[in-house]
Design brief:
The complex is a heterodimer of chains A (about 120) and B (about 110).
Chain A: E1 5-7, E2 10-13, E3 19-24, E4 31-37, E5 43-50, E6 53-57, E7 65-68, E8 75-79, E9 88-95, E10 105-106, E11 110-114
Chain B: E1 3-5, E2 10-14, E3 19-21, E4 24-26, E5 33-38, E6 45-49, E7 60-61, E8 72-74, E9 83-91, E10 95-98, E11 102-107
Classes of the chains: A mainly beta (about 120), B mainly beta (about 110).
C-alpha cells in the first residue's frame, strides 16, 4: 500500500528558530493535512490544503505557521519562530478526495523538540 | 464545539475476552465517525468508519444516536489487538476531531 512519508523523524531546535517539516503525500492524492499531538494530549487538526491553498485551519495555526507545496510532490509545514509549546509530534496526512467518508492516510510523524 | 470523549485512557483485558472501547461524541448535525488505530511503532491508520458498517479484524462499531456513542467492540480479543485506539469525528469536510485515545493491552 502506498505511504505518506515524513522527514525528519526527529527534529530538535532552539526556541526562536525556524523549522520546516517535510512530507511526501501519496502521489495521486489531492488533499493534504497537518495534525499534531502534544505528549499526553489529543491529536489536533492544524490545517488542510487543496489546490495550492489552505482550505481550512484551526486556531492553533497562527501567523507563525505556514504550509507550502513547493514542487508538486512535497508538502511542508514551516514554523517561523518556534516556541517551547510547539514541541509535539507532527503528523502529515493525505486523502484522495474530500468525501465525508474518505480515508486519511497518515505519515509516521516528526517529533519536534523545542529547547 | 464538537467533542469526542474516550473515557478510558487504559484498558486491559485477557486474550479471548470481549473488548469494548467507549466513545461518546457531541455533534449538532449528522455525525461521521471513525476509529483509527496505532500499533506499536506504526503509523496512525483507519480501522473502520461507521458509514461502511464494516467489520475489520473482528472489530465492529455501531453508531447510537440516542446515546451519542460509537463504541468499538470485538467478541474475542487477540494479543495483536494491543494498540492505541482513537475515535474521531469528522467536522465539516476537512477536519477530524480526535478523542484522547485508549491504550488497549491484551494479556496472554
Amino acid at each position: 500500500e502506498p505511504e505518506v512519508t515524513q522527514t525528519p523523524s526527529h527534529q530538535v531546535t532552539q526556541m526562536g528558530q525556524e523549522v520546516i517539516l517535510r512530507c511526501v503525500p501519496i502521489s495521486n492524492h489531492l488533499y493534504f493535512y497537518w495534525y499534531r499531538q502534544i505528549l499526553g494530549q489529543k491529536v489536533e487538526f492544524l490545517v488542510s490544503f487543496y489546490n495550492n491553498e489552505i482550505s481550512e485551519k484551526s486556531e492553533i495555526f497562527d501567523d507563525q505557521f505556514s504550509v507550502e507545496r513547493p514542487d508538486g510532490s512535497n508538502f511542508t509545514l514551516k514554523i517561523r519562530s518556534t516556541k517551547l509549546e510547539d514541541s509535539a509530534m507532527y503528523f502529515c496526512a493525505s486523502s484522495g478526495s474530500r468525501g465525508y467518508t474518505e480515508k486519511l492516510f497518515f505519515g509516521s510523524g516528526t517529533q519536534l523538540s523545542v529547547l | 464545539a464538537q467533542r469526542v470523549t474516550q473515557p478510558e485512557k487504559l484498558l486491559s483485558v485477557f486474550k479471548g475476552a470481549p473488548v469494548e472501547l467507549k466513545c461518546n461524541y457531541s455533534y449538532s448535525g449528522s455525525p461521521e465517525l471513525f476509529w483509527y488505530v496505532q500499533y506499536s511503532r506504526q503509523r496512525l491508520q483507519l480501522l473502520l468508519r461507521h458509514i461502511s458498517r464494516e467489520s475489520i479484524k473482528g472489530f465492529t462499531a455501531d453508531l447510537n444516536k440516542g446515546e451519542t456513542s460509537f463504541h468499538l467492540k470485538k467478541p474475542f480479543a487477540q494479543e495483536e489487538d494491543s494498540a492505541m485506539y482513537y475515535c474521531a469525528l469528522r467536522e465539516g469536510a476537512q477536519k477530524l476531531v480526535f478523542g484522547q485515545g485508549t491504550r488497549l493491552t491484551i494479556n496472554p
